[in-house]
Amino acid sequence: MKTLALFSAFIALLPLSLTAGPALTIYNQNFAVVRETIPFDLKSGVNLVNFSGVTTQVEPDSVVLRDASGKLALRILEQSYRADAASQGLLLAMNEGKELDFIVRDKDAKEYLVKGRVIRSGYKAGGEASTPIIEVDGKLRFSLPGQPIFPSLGDDAILQPTLAWQVNVEKDAKLDAELGYVTGGMSWQAAYNFVAPEKGDQVDIVGWVTVVNNTGKQFTDASIKLMAGDVNRVQPQSPTMRRDGMVMAMAVARQEDVTEKSFDEFHLYSLPRNVTLRDQETKQVEFIRAKGVTAPQLYIFDQQKYGAKVATVREFKNIKENGGLGLPLPKGRTRFYRQDSADGRLEFVGENNIDHTAKNETVRIYTGDVFDIVVERKATDTKMSSRNDFREEAFEVTLRNRKSDTVEVRISEHFYQWPNWSLIEQSDPSEKTDASTAEFRVKLKPDEEKKVTYRVRYDWK
After folding, report:
1. For residue 287, how many other CB atoms are within 10 A of its CB?
2. What pLDDT score does 388 carry?
3. What region holds the DUF4139 domain (predicted)?
4. Which CATH architecture is the domain 373-459 placed in?
């Protein structure tokens, strides 16, 4: 068996050099696909190859190693993934039962050595550590007496998570192999800021994508694509998370336009230039800017959808003619601001989330309840047929406009008791908007009060 040792015992612990920057496709479900190019110099027969540049949340069974050119058939005889990178806890575990030197500093910062035997390291791979137990001068201590000093690393120790392969080739070959794998700990989300004047239906929209890297690895000069859509994933039983308690750096990148295209049943957004994404970093990129979007403010009373008050809802059409929209919008948070005409400052007036929205669709976003439009709804009558073949109900909705402007309120009433229903009496015209809903549109002048009444009949014939 011929084996090519690409690294010496120490060099094998370091990342393999890469010939090109990595490529990332990030999903908004806390995972990403990583693709990197690795130079191989293989000899005929079986070769041992180590690569220590993977993330700490790699899914080992997702790893694909291949010759992207298709000229050489790589036969992978064996693949190993080691995540037991050297740490103080691991080294204590490796020295259980042995005596170590500990550096102790007194109150004057003077250092001296204390010998102690490691009874229990407290280390537990992938789990919560327990308190170490150290024997010093025949007495047990449930803590470390100082900073431990360890003997040199063995030949089998690693400093970073490492993939190792046994690769068989028929002849000597030099190639740039493509490594691809799925990793957890990376996600992205969209956020939209809507800015409107104090009065009017025109808004400016700025959309950002926020990419978060918690994979335990830095990606230098990486090309990045963002996949929008709900990709089906089999959930692992014990996911490893590294985000809790971490301090994240924030970077904002001013870029050229982000490009978008349909891909399978999803949408793919490509950043226009390569970026460096550090571990524990949050990076933001502007991906949409639209000015003068027509987004009228609607006042809707829909007790089943928005509750017992009149809701304020923004509505706009996602079309190119509407301020330059017309781009598929990935799901994300929307924040609304109005500019105070007195001092020009922006004031926050509400937020909500939108789902993935295709182009040419209409978007409605609930932003809060109206202060100065009062609504009261009550049942005024109910009647059941003596033959039990129909039922009637009567309702009254009272609206009072305490604004200084004329407003239109849309009253949505839902009739779910039986499919066969009809309005046999109504004080105002209505429109049947779906199989179980009627909508009344009521205009109110300042300080005007109106009562909308109706009687619905359910027929069971």
Report:
1. 22
2. 81
3. 178-460
4. Sandwich (2.60)
Whether residue 89 contacts residue 148, with contact meaning beta carbons closer than 8 Å, is answered with no
Alpha helices in 336-434 (DSSP H): none
Q: What are the C-alpha distances in Å from 349 to residues 195, 292, 336, 356? A: 10, 19, 6, 23
* Contacts with 412 (C-beta within 8 Å, 6 or more apart), sequence order: 300, 301, 302, 305, 433, 437, 438, 439
- Check whether 327 has a pLDDT greater than 90: no
pTM score, two decimals?
0.69
Instruction: Please say whether the beta carbons of 352 and 334 come within 8 A.
Output: yes
- List CB contacts of 313: < 8 A, sequence separation 6 or more: 297, 298, 299, 300, 364, 365, 366, 367
Q: How far apart are CA 362 and CA 358, in angstroms?
A: 9
State the Cα angle at 162 between 158 and 167, rounded to 5°: 120
| Phi-psi domain of 412 (left: phi exceeds 0; alpha: psi -120 through 50; beta: other) | beta
Longest dimension (CA), the chain: 99
Cβ neighbours of 112 (radius 10 Å): 10
Which residues neighbour 151 within 8 Å (Cβ) at sequence distance 6 or greater?
95
Q: Tell me: the pLDDT tens digits for 88-121?
A: 787 888 888 999 999 999 888 899 899 999 999 8
Q: Strand order of the sheet with strand 75-82? A: 45-51, 162-169, 75-82
Mean pLDDT of the chain: 85
pLDDT tens digit sequence for 290-305: 999 999 999 999 999 9
